[in-house]
Design brief:
Blueprint lengths: L17 E6 L4 H4 L2 H9 L2 E5 L3 H10 L4 E2 L10 H17 L3 E6 L8 H12 L3 E4 L5 H9 L3 H4 L1 E5 H6 L9 E5 L15 H15 L4 E6 L9 E6 L13 E4 L8 H7 L24 H6 L10
Parallel strand pairs: 1-4, 1-5, 2-3, 2-4, 6-7
Antiparallel strand pairs: 7-10, 8-9, 8-10
Amino acid sequence: MTPGSRSKAKAGPRRKGSLVIVGTGIRAVQHTTTEAREEISRADKLFYLVSDVVSEKWIRTLNPTAESLASCYVRGGSRMSAYRRMVTKMLRSVRAGATVCAAFYGHPGVSVYPSHEAIRLAREEGFDAVMLPGISAEDCLLADLGIDPLRSGCQSFEATDFLVFRRKFDTSSALLLWQAGVVGSTVYRPRGVRRGLRELAQYLAGFYGGRHELVLYEASPLSMFRPMIRSTTIEKLPASGVDGSMTMFIPPKSRPPDPEALRRLKLTRASLKVVPPCWDPPPTEVRRTRSTRRVRRRTVSSGTP
């Protein structure tokens, strides 16, 4: 949702039927806000897309009309086609005059094409449509890795977009790459694509060097399990077994402050917050347990490539 976006809605009287898009957070039972839970419960029709069976069962207890959007995915099929099917389902109920709520895993506005497109189309047709925030995977990553994004700055890109468009970035700031496991793929698949990972590793090595550390991360959907945190290097990335749901964190390279800027601002290097680093590495490698793999039935990837 962007400032002034409501002004783009079609002028004239509002039509019956409405759409509210909410986020369930990563751990739906604990992360879903009171506001989002109320919208889920009171909706005439509820759609949802979550990543684990525990969240799904909980959502179904809140509203008997609950319908999963996961059926829109076809293994090996185009992700964009799946997203359009989701939008069509949501808007069909809105056009029928229902109060519709759609609940998406994490934050509904972060890498979730169907939520933005459904709101855009609903507003164009004169329906009320809003989005409510949720706890995102990035929020969990910052907490689990101990990252302060303001320490060195933090850049965030979808991996395929980053690689294809050669996005400009600063190696002295932290870098987050989303959906790195499916870089270069436009079809739905939960496992990584090694060809794309090789291209990504080669590109990153040109800026950081092959031995620069990176971290593969996946938040845990349940509080009883720990997140998946795996350290590796850029040169080892293609053989690292990256899933489509993993996020890549690349720590920054060091850079000294500009002496002239220090002089003009009457600052000293000692006065700057340059230590500790922007993140605190975990003492040991943390791997996701088999139990967590059973709980996470489906990898949900709603962003556009």
